[in-house]
Amino acid sequence: MTVLKTSMRNFLAHKGRMALSAVAVVLSVAFVCGTLVFSDTVSTTFDKLFAATSADVTVTPKSADDTDEGPRSGRPESMPASVVQEAKRAEGVKGAEGAIISQSVTVVDAENENVGPTSGGPTLAGNWTRNDLRSMEITSGHSPRGPTEVMVDADTADKHDLKIGDKLRTIAATGDHTAKITGIATFKVTNPGAAVVYFDTATAQRELLGATGRFTHINLTAQAGVSDTELKASVAGTLDKAAYDIKTQKESADDNRESVSGFLNVMKYAMLGFAGIAFLVGIFLIINTFSMLVAQRTREIGLMRAIGSSRKQVNRSVLVEALLLGVTGSVLGVGAGIGLAVGLMKLMSGMGMELSTGDLTVSWTTPVIGMVLGIVVTVLAAYLPARRAGKVSPMAALRDAGTPADGRASVLRAVIGLALTGVGVLALYAAAQADKAKEGSLYLGGGVVLTLIGFIVIGPVLASGVVRVISVVLLRAFGPVGRMAERNALRNPRRTGATGAALMIGLALVACLSVVGSSMVASATEELDKSVGADFIVQGKGGLTAEAERALTKTPGVDHFSRYKDVGADITTPDGKVTKGAGLSATDPTYVKDLRREAVSGDVSAAYGKDAMSVGEEFAGKHRLKVGDTLKVAFDDGRTGELKLAAITSDEGSLEKGAMYTAIATAERYVPADRMPLTEMVLAEASAGQQDKAYKALKKSLDAYPQFEVMDQTDFKETLKDQVGQMLNMVYGLLGLAIIVAILGVVNTLALSVVERTREIGLMRAIGLSRRQLRRMIRMESVVIALFGALLGLGLGMGWGATAQKLLALEGLKVLDIPWPTIIAVFIGSAFVGLFAALVPAFRAGRMNVLNAIATE
């Protein structure tokens, strides 16, 4: 009980100093809990949607042609309407209706603006059915009754100011279709971001499937007392199970959930990873806080020991303070995490992914995980200071000798730090020399972890040398004030090392990702300059429809077009091995010239002869192929043919590495016209001297198709740079949490350091040091500590990034590009971080009463 009272008294006595440490705990716990609440809420949203939209039992045709963005042909797999009647005859069926759904569409308004989501959500088109009433209700107008009518969901109508009477044009593989809005339907559950349009059944069949009397799936309703499982079994006995997939409502919902789980899991674990980094940085803040508090209570600890307190009791007293800090910070962090989740939901809504606070999901595990993490991390971080406090002898403490300095511990720290760093550097070197990316990535991961830990351990040793170098460059010009700032930073290398290490971690990751991102852009740019001979690239969401292709071919000023289609196939090589799902690049003969594909054996142009193809050299080596061999190719949704190997292409470079080429004419001989994949990309070469004219003409030709984009090589490079930049900016934003915690660490260290040096500050003021000089001294000390952490972090991060680039070189990204403007900007920004962190401690130091400060014990 005495230990608890003592801990409570000390905790409340230093509540101001504990507050900054508590903020670190709050932020870290909030990020973890916010991530869990956000991901659980997203899962709940999709679960409700999938449960509401799935029929009791659903029948769909088996398909091998579907991709994540829909069928390659643009036409969904369908089945004859007669199957509806067959399924309806199964025992236990109350109702059966044919339905049509396609996501291979683009919908534009009267202004030719795409009304579909641009953030990854699908645009869906289909027929209005009774099953849709489970998830939607018509809130304005009526459902479509003929070919000139269409209904749209309310969310899309609100976003694009659509109203009844407006016209929408639906662009599909079968053609363009314009209709007038006659109804608006509202979701009964949250719509995460899809745009949905409905037609009458006949129109949907004609415009989406290109055929009458066919459906993409059948919705079955069970009779009263018949379970979904029983109904499935009954229908399975009626229909051909080899031709159709039959699923219960739960199975359909689970499949739909699985289709989005990959993206959700990546987002969830990435955010938890950044939360872990923030926790790691927060550990240094907590260690520093308790180390300094223990040092400032040395005499108090001596008195406790002198009157009979044991080492365990002193140790326990400090750990109980940490426990109080952990509990307080974790409780606040859990609450802040829920608020953060709501903020993330609002942010995602602004980006097009709609989430409702009505679906906010806080499972019981979330606060438990947050509390356990916060408390355990805080107590563990305080263990070393608590252990050092217990080692203080009563007589040394009463003399105010401070915590014992262990020279052997410092030497041991240096040896361990050097050893870890050395092993980490060797691992990084092994990664850079690896012949296979998988093997090298293991060495890279080990090298990153070991060098990071090594730098953390050896930080106090490095502080002495690095701080002196920085001081020579920056502080000596400020005379005695600068020299005092240098001595203050060097006074406790362990403290300086721990404070700098907190900032080092975040900046090391920033530098590493900057190097990797910049190298990716530089490598891709070099590869484009080297490999792409075409003037223009045309691509977009989905494939080019026949109308879009016709519009392109009529463009003046273009010498030729090279189309690219991705044709799915299973390939059997002469060694008898079957490569499932191999993608054949079916292109025009000019494509390999526009992309400058080189052959290591044979002639690439020969691959465009009748029943001929090429493969990459890695595939050829794996199966011991040579020019002239015959490969059996089973085309998806088509026939099986025997194609002659006419060329083996080089795998050098990153563009279409390992691609297998054949002529579009060859693919068309084996794949029916209605199942032939749409053109995914077109390369275009302008006529001599007609580049500018052709560029403008191509854009004009595709004005009616906003889902496709015409880019010259400069545009393409800028697009690539912007995509990488957006990804890095998002990562930097998440790393900002760790950097904020590191800044709090600098603030806390300086604040406690000012308290620790109260008497010294009073003496300096008494002998003539002005308030302005005192504040400058503290600001300079902060800047030096921040720059120390920045130097270590940036140096470490550039080493990681350079090693990662060596691994990427195995995939064709061979250019190492150090983004010096970014590195220099981050280093200079670290100086401003130091200045900002010192504002409050410097201000408080300047306001000290000189006489009271001198009288401080």
Automatic annotation (TrEMBL):
Pfam families: FtsX (PF02687), MacB_PCD (PF12704). Residues 274-394, 734-849 form the ABC3 transporter permease C-terminal domain. It is found in: Cell membrane. This is FtsX-like permease family protein. Keywords: Cell membrane, Membrane, Transmembrane, Transmembrane helix. Residues 59-87 are annotated as: Disordered. Residues 19-235, 499-691 form the MacB-like periplasmic core domain. The keyword Membrane applies. Residues 63-75 have a biased composition (Basic and acidic residues). InterPro entries: ABC3_permease_C, MacB_PCD, Macrolide_Exporter_MacB. The chain crosses the membrane at residues 269-295, 318-344, 364-386, 411-432, 452-475, 496-516, 730-755, 782-802, 822-843. Belongs to the ABC-4 integral membrane protein family. It is a multi-pass membrane protein.
